[in-house]
Amino acid sequence: MIERFEAGVLPAKAEWQSHISALKSRTVPAGKEAVRDALLAAVRERIPKGKFGLMLSGGLDSSLLAFLLKKEGADFVAVSVGIRGSPDVESAGRLAKELELSWAVRECTDEEVAQLAKEVSKMIPQKDIVNLSVGAVELAAARLGKEHGVSLFFGGLGSEEIFAGYKEHIVAKDINEACWAGMMDRLHDRDLTRDAALGSALGISVRCPFLDDKVIVSAMGIPASEKYRDGQKKFVLREIAEGLGLPKEWAWRKRLAAQYGSGFDKALERIAKKKGVQKGVIAQRM
Questions:
Q1: Does some domain include residue 201?
Q2: Region for 243 from its dihedrals, namely left if φ exceeds 0, alpha if ψ lies in -120 to 50, beta otherwise
Q3: Is 1 among the domain residues?
Q4: N or C: which end of the chain has fewer CB within 10 A?
Q5: CATH number of the domain where residue 59 is located
Q6: What separation, in Å, do the N-terminal and C-terminal C-alpha atoms of the chain show?
Q7: φ and ψ at 153, to 5 degrees?
Q8: What's the rounded Cα separation, in Å, for the pair 283 and 286?
Q9: Which residue range forms the structural domain that includes residue 220?
Q10: Cβ distance 130 to 104 under 8 Å?
């Protein structure tokens, strides 16, 4: 259940931590070839027989998944959402053209973003601005996917934790220990909890190759020096992506969190300013 995590199914915290602890005990030094092979297998194993969706931001993780799924001949539609002209929409559009993907895009107004955040606030337990913004992106993407006949999606959840994609990873004394700590707590309490609630409310599931047991074990066997190098977070995954054939523009694109890359965070900020309220409470003040 945990190895093939799907939105809508949330393991108990104790169960999750026990599982991650078991994976940590199995981890031994590994090279990028082991990570590459584990990721390729994890993607192949999760491809369904019918049509499905991919939530595409145009960042490293979703772009790599799009590239691998295309190579596998999978029947999928890539869905992207954001404010008109947002970094994610522009990057995803260029990738869709480059890879000749079936691509659907939804460009939202500020008012639509605020309405999405208000709806999300009724679906998830966390009411902070980060979860509302990310949840709004996921809600819009899920609805766009359903318009194209899909309720099963691929997503890049887990990549940030195992490849040191957050600032707190790279400033830590021990990068890999910070990654394990993030998986133990933040990944469960924030991302899995939010996405499980959304999945249940929306009737969708999200397959996450980066949460595959073998991917986690191999990635966590990579030395910390290979995860953050030359000012680049997730350095080894970028090398793997480029080595597999993902064009350099997307393999080395600077990461923007969903709320920033989509422009949803700024949209909520503008709406809050108009209404004279704090951005963090805008969803409750609509």
A1: yes
A2: alpha
A3: no
A4: N
A5: 3.40.50.620
A6: 38
A7: -130, 160
A8: 6
A9: 13-225+232-284
A10: no
Residue (of 9, 20, 84, 37) closest to 218 by Cα position = 37
pLDDT of residue 7: 62
Task: Dihedral sign for Cα 229, 234, 237, 241, please.
Answer: negative
Distance CA 121, CA 71 (A): 38
- How long a stretch of residues is the chain? 286
**Which residues, listed in sequence order, are joined to residue 55 by a DSSP beta bridge?**
79
Type of residue at 138 = E
d(CA 281, CA 268) in angstroms, rounded, equals 10
Domain membership flag for residue 2: no
- What single-letter DSSP state applies at residue 205? E
Q: Which of 191, 157, 144, 153 is nearest to 61 (CA)?
A: 157
DSSP 8-state code for residue 236: H
One-letter amino acid at 173 equals: K
Going 29 to 32 to 34 to 35, the CA torsion angle's sign is: positive
Does residue 117 contact residue 282 with C-beta atoms inside 8 Å?
Answer: yes
Q: Which two tokens stand for residue 83?
A: 């404010």
Residue type present at position 162: I
Query: CA 184 → CA 161, 169, 179, distances in Å?
Result: 10, 14, 9
Q: How many domains does the chain have?
A: 1
H helices within the chain, ranges in order? 13-26, 32-46, 60-71, 87-99, 110-121, 129-147, 159-162, 167-170, 175-184, 186, 193-202, 213-219, 235-244, 248-251, 258-261, 264-275
For residue 143, the SS3 value is helix
Query: What are the per-10-residue average pLDDT scores of the chain (286 residues)?
Result: 60 95 97 98 97 96 98 98 89 96 95 91 90 92 97 96 95 97 96 94 95 97 96 96 97 73 77 68 54
> How many angstroms separate the CA atoms of 208 and 156, rounded?
6
Instruction: Please report whether residue 7 resides in a domain.
Output: no
